[in-house]
Amino acid sequence: MRCLILSGFVALSWFAAAASPACAQAAPPQPPRQSNGLALTPPMGWNSWNHFGCDISEQTIRAAADAMVSSGMKDAGYQYVVIDDCWHGPRDAEGNITADPKRFPSGIKALADYVHAKGLKFGIYSDAGTQTCAGRPGSRGYEYQDARTYAAWGVDYLKYDWCHTGTQDGQSSYTLMSDALRATGRPIVFSLCDWGSNKDWLWAKNVGNLWRTTGDIYDGWESRDGHYNGMTNIVDMQAELAAYAGPGHWNDPDMLEVGNGGMSNEEYKTQFSLWAEMAAPLIAGNDLTKMDAQTLAILTNREVIAVDQDALGVQGRRVFKDGDREVWVKPLAGGGRAVVLFNRGKEASEIAVDWDMLGYPKGTPMHVRDLWQHKDLPRAHERVAAEVPPHGVVMLRLSY
Ligand code: GLA
Fold first, then answer.
1. Of 3.20.20.70, 3.90.190.20, 3.60.15.10, 2.40.440.10, which CATH number belongs to 44-308?
2. Where are the extended beta strands (E) located within 104-170?
3. Distance, CA 382 to ligand 1 centroid (Å)?
4. What is the pLDDT of residues 155-167, one digit of tens each?
5. Catalytic residue of the set 216, 324, 354, 370
6. Domains of the chain by residue range
7. What would the pLDDT profile of 25-82 be if each residue is shown by its tens digit?
8. DSSP string, 242-311
9. Residue 50 in contact with residue 287, Cβ under 8 Å?
C-alpha cells in the first residue's frame, strides 16, 4: 500500500489520500479459480504428527511407507504418506527451503522418490505464517518459491498450518498458496489447517481440498483436565458442517488416533466409524511399524472404508439423539444408506433406526449388513434395532 506509507503520518491525511483516485491501487489480477479436480473422495493416508510429533527422520517416514504396504493398508486404500512439522532446515542464500540435514540427510526429493517407488503418494507440511507451529521456517513471503520447490521434489499433498500468522487474512493467505500450487502444474492436494479459525467451509471449496474444522484432536474419549477436543467433542463440532462437504472439498475433523493408546479398541472403532460416516479424511496417526492385529483390523475394515469413500461424497448427519443414544445416516451412491447407531453412554443400550429417519417409505424392503461383524442381517421393512456396547457403535449398510 504505497498510499498508506506516503501519507500515513496522520490518520486523517491517510483517509483523504486513500479516498482520492490518484492514490487508488487496483487489486492484483487473479486467475479464475475452480476446483483442482483432486480428492474426489476423502484423502486416505498416514501423517507423522499424532504419534511422532517432532521426533521424525527419513527413517521414520520410510518405515511408515514400508509398513503401509506390508500391512495391507495400501491395498485397503491408504495412499498419502505425509511428513508433518519439523522436517525443515534453514532457508539457503536464495531463500529456498532446505531439509534438516541431520534428520533428512538424503533430502526430501530422495524421500519422495522412495515413497513413489512403493506406489504411494508423498505429502509435506508448511505454514501460512512466518514460522510453523514448532518454530520452523513458514512460507509467508515465499509461497510461490516454496510451491515450486515442493513440485520439484515430487510433493503430492501439502498440509498448510496457521501458526505465527499475526493479523494475516485467512482467505487471502490460503488462496495465495492455492494459486502458487496450481501455478506449478503439478497436481497437489491442498490441506488447510487453521482449526476452523477462518470458517473455511464458507469460502474454501475451490481453494483447498480439505480444511480442519477444530483444534488439534486429543487422544481421549472427551475433553478433560485441560485437554480440549477429545474425540467426541470433535464429532459434535463437525456434525454441524455437513452441508459444506462434497467431492473435492471435505471437512477435516483431524487425524485418526486409532492405535495410539489413549482410547480403548471399542472407542477407536467408534472414531473410525464416525469418521467414515462423516466422509472425513482417513489419515492414520499411529506407528504403523508396531500395530497390533486389532488396530490393523480397525484401520483396514474395507466395508467401513467403502462408506467413507462412497462416490456420492455426502457427509452423514445425526438424525436422532436421545441423551447418549444417537443415529447417524449417510446417503450412498445407488440409494442405500450407511447407518451408525452410536452409544455415548457407559452402559450397553438398544438403539433403533426407523425408515422415516432414512427418508424411506415404511414397508420398503432393505438388505441390512453389519459392517463390523461382516455379516448380513435379516431383511428389514421399517426399522432395525441393535444392542450397542458402551462407547461403541453398530454400523450398518442398508441397500436395495
Ligand atoms: C498444529 C496442527 C497439528 C500439527 C502441529 C505441528 O497444531 O494443527 O495438526 O500439524 O501444528 O506443529
1. 3.20.20.70
2. 121-127, 157-161
3. 45
4. 999 999 999 999 9
5. 216
6. 1-30, 44-308, 317-399
7. 887 777 678 999 999 999 999 999 999 999 999 999 999 999 999 999 999 999 999 9
8. GGG-BTTBEEE-----TTSSSS-HHHHHHHHHHHHHTT--EEE-S-GGG--HHHHHHHT-HHHHHHHT-T
9. no
